[in-house]
Give the backbone structure.
Amino acid sequence: MSNSPVHSRFSQTHGLIFGICFSLGVTALIWLAAGRLDDFELRPDRDVAFWYPWVTATPTIWTRASVWGLYAAHQLTIWWLIWKAQTQKSGYSKSLSRVNVLALLANAGFIALHFVQTHVFYDGLALDVPEQSSQWSVILLLVIVLLMENQRRGLFFGRKIGGRVMGESARALRKYHGYYFAWATIYTFWYHPMVSTPGHLLGFLYMFLMLLQGSLFFTRIHVNRWWMLTQEVLVLIHGTIVALSNAPDFWQMFCFGFGFAGLFIVTQMHGLGLSVKTRWFFLGAYVLSVCVVYSDVGMNHIHQVTWIPLTEYAVVFALAAVVWSVMKVSRWFMREDEPSTRSKQINP
């Protein structure tokens, strides 16, 4: 299978427009078909942290087989397509390759299958795995983006964090991040049933766009800074809506603190080529918004804006250290194997 462009008419723009329209259309379909799920009996709600109520009361073996089987098929298909694209070693193009088209069709097909599976069996992976696993898979994805983009836009107000550890770990993640991003996105996508709460609807739209981004590998739109920023900033809206529904006393922390608005001010806007005046405007608007919100909530709670951003930045450095350590250990083992390999070649 060649990774050359399918045809000039299949441009990255066509792929992007198709993907966005498809994503909006399926999100609307989830909302329109919501009433068909009312007949499913859900397990009783409990006052327990991270209790996920969208699980049926009496799942069957076929319920589990449907969701885990389709998840595994989706995951392995996209991993294979990523590997296929990498082995062909083509540069970035404005046209879609055959692999891009297959990835777009595969993701669209599995999205449709998940919709059908929800309406037949209801349950997602939430039946068997904790909600934190879904949340942290996406959080780590966003942290990896921060690390990979450090050399382009910096980490703190445009300042790049140099050093061998940060540089080498970022290069390794740029090469292999597609496999983790595909897992985090597809796992989260299959974790939830396609129900129509505001948080679910926006969450699925976000997952659809992430799957679209993953399908456009080795196209120039895949590394377009405005399109990438859209993927990052959508978390702000989704996180705030979910928090308003499930944790109304802490929504301001998720909006201003969960790396969303805060990360945009500290990190993300510095990779857009904005003027100094524009950046000062965004900073002023952010500070004013925080002051207005916490003047109502209570200024004694304003420390909330530092909780999760500090955690995310700490994870950036921890992740860089872990990736670099794994690389060092791998190189050491490879050097250890070289003499024995040469010996076998000399003395067969």
The chain has twelve helices and no strands. Residues 1-8, 248-259 have pLDDT under 50 and may be disordered. The two ends are 37 Å apart (CA to CA).
